[in-house]
């Protein structure tokens, strides 16, 4: 259906190649992407976060439908390893790169390397400020977090002591969710009394951070975990501390987060449209390979999810 482009230029001073987890959209694995079919490299921060797992699933699903090969590299939350993994994609001659940075520090390096090799880059969820992808696909986290903040004000009775469990500092989603949520609670009597950052948005981090914060600030009665994993850890820590009436909200709409909203463990979350974003990432990459125009940003609506509407997203995740 698509013609493959010429092999990517070799870059000077190749970094040590990382071992890749290789997944194919059509047939068996090969040692090089230059075998006559379109090959896309997918670089993800980890395969622990349900969000990244979902993006990978829907990228692979759409690639298979388009008869496109996908090579997957899991950075295991190591930004330096991810740089090496993307360099290996370039060496193997991938036609396009779908890239979710593992952190903020070295996020620009893979984008610049790929573009130097004339490989189009689609960034998902995170977009390096100084070296953005050719197109950026993400949830409109500012708007979604603002709506979530407004919901919290209403459901907390316009007052409370708020703790924030942050994601990785300096990353696009952390900054956007911070900006939006602040707008949402602005003008209310909700007071932020504490915040602390996680390293990888994970549930065990949410648990430990919340345990520590509740010891220092026992008056906390509202918690915003920037990801569902963080919120789930926070909710469990609050229950273990005897805070039964804690209002805890998250962000992502992961399967475990949605089930927690249904059970009442979480009061609300924002469901990200991972099915749509994964498919859109593949389609955008194919368009860029064919030199077609693609918008610089493709922001998707985040869906405020509460006990009132959660069942439909458990049954059919967008």
TrEMBL record:
The keyword Signal applies. InterPro entries: Peripla_BP_I, SBP_2_dom. Residues 1-28 form the signal peptide. Residues 40-292 form the Periplasmic binding protein domain. Coiled coil: none annotated. It is found in: Cell envelope. Gene3D superfamilies: 3.40.50.2300. It holds the Pfam family Peripla_BP_4. Keywords: Signal. The keyword Manganese does not apply. Belongs to the bacterial solute-binding protein 2 family. This is Substrate-binding domain-containing protein. It comes from Streptosporangium amethystogenes subsp. fukuiense. The lineage of its organism: Bacteria, Bacillati, Actinomycetota, Actinomycetes, Streptosporangiales.
């Amino acid at each position: 259906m698509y013609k493959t482009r010429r092999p990517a230029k070799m870059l000077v001073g190749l970094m040590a190649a990382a071992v890749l987890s290789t997944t194919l959209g059509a047939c068996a694995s090969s040692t090089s992407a230059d075998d006559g079919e379109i090959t896309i490299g997918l670089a993800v921060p980890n395969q622990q976060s349900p969000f990244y797992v979902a993006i990978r699933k829907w990228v692979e699903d759409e690639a298979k439908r388009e008869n496109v090969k996908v090579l997957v590299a899991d950075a295991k939350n190591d930004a330096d390893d991810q740089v090496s993994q993307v360099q290996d994609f370039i060496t193997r001659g991938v036609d396009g790169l779908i890239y979710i940075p593992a952190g903020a520090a070295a996020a620009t390096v893979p984008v610049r390397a790929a573009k130097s090799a004339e490989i189009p880059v689609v960034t998902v969820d995170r977009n390096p400020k100084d070296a953005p992808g050719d197109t950026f696909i993400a949830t409109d986290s500012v708007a979604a977090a603002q709506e979530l903040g407004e919901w919290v004000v209403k459901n907390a009775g316009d007052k409370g002591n708020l703790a924030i469990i942050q994601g990785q500092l300096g990353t696009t989603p952390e900054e956007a969710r911070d900006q939006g949520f602040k707008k949402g609670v602005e003008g209310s009597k909700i007071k932020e009394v504490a915040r602390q950052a996680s390293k990888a948005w994970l549930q065990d981090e949410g648990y430990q951070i919340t345990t520590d914060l509740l010891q220092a600030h026992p008056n906390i009665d509202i918690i915003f975990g920037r990801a569902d994993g963080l919120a789930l850890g926070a909710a469990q820590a609050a229950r273990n501390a005897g805070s039964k009436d804690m209002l805890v909200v998250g962000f992502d709409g992961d399967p475990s987060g949605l089930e927690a909203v249904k059970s009442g463990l979480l009061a609300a979350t924002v469901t990200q449209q991972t099915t749509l974003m994964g498919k859109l990432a593949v389609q955008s990459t194919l368009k860029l390979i064919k030199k077609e125009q693609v918008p610089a940003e493709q922001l998707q609506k985040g869906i405020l999810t509460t006990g009132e509407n959660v069942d439909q997203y458990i049954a059919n995740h967008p």
